[in-house]
Amino acid sequence: MRVAVPFPDTQPPGYEWFTDEPVFEPARHLQLEAPDSIIMLTDLGYDETEIATKATPVAASSPFRLLSEEGAAIMLDVARRLRPFASRAGDRIESMTRGGCYRSRWLRDLCISQDVTTHLEKIFGIAIAPHAMPVHLGHLNFEPSRIDTAIDKWHHDTLPLDFVMTVTDPAEVAGGRFEYFLGTKHDAAELAAAGRTPPPERTVAPNVPGPGYAIALHGDMVVHRAGPLTELTERISMVNGYVALDTSCDDQSRSADLLAVDDPNTLFTEWAKFAAWRAHGRLGDLIARIDFDADPESVARRLEMAVGDVNQAIAEMRAGARSVDHYGG
Length: 329
Known about the structure:
With 329 residues, this protein is α+β, with helices and mostly antiparallel strands. It has a domain at 26-251: q2cbj1_9rhob like domain (Jelly Rolls, Sandwich). It has 10 helices and 14 strands. Strands 3, 4, 5, 6, 7, 9, 12 and 14 form an 8-stranded antiparallel β-sheet that branches. It has a 4-stranded antiparallel β-sheet with strand order 8-13-10-11, with no helix packed on it. It is globular and about 65 Å long.
């Protein structure tokens, strides 16, 4: 079983398990199907030099089925039960629930399912594991209270890899489409600096056939959003995060953004474990591969790189909360 950091045996303070939900059964609740197509980071305009440092060259998949009808129905019920725990993420998302895998065992077991992970590995083309920070597992976005507000503004994710899954039936929702930008995040930043957002002619809104369908996403590299509704109605989506098991690639995380979002007791513990896991992998590689003929400066530089994630996490933890980044509307 591919694991970065095992899911904790205990819950953070203030979390209680739901006591009356079904047991997750992969044979009944999953219906894993392959996507029809995949687009690559080169298709969005990224160059090979930048891509080489990232987890995978894959950008996004077309929608594919992930849950069976029974699984989709349970997912909707779990999401509705988690709605009372919703909170805001700055001015980016009005209503979201994080940490749901500390309340719902069914959601937890879906999000760390080896069957699902193996399926995503085939799409991303690399070895992956469920994200080492459980706050990134089973993230739920809910509809806003105003019709002129995007459910989630244009952004790239605070984690490297994920899937975005429809929980409510898209056929019963007016608007609120998932969209991604046919450009790089550097292009999006230039547009935002000019007071603009990705134009319609450079966006894709995939046709999602029904609830329980997902899109695999290189979240750190693909600029995307959940657009505004045209009628106020229930609209729920779920995001589940993953990490590449190869710790030599870039971190591709903005964990400091979470200081304004997540409970500190939960976040700091998970963040520390994540940084330690990445350093463990890089230090192990250094032990295995460093040679006596390496010059002193390269030795110091490699050691510095090996613990870079730890030092960055410490500095960002101590710096305190900052605004949650996005590219507007």
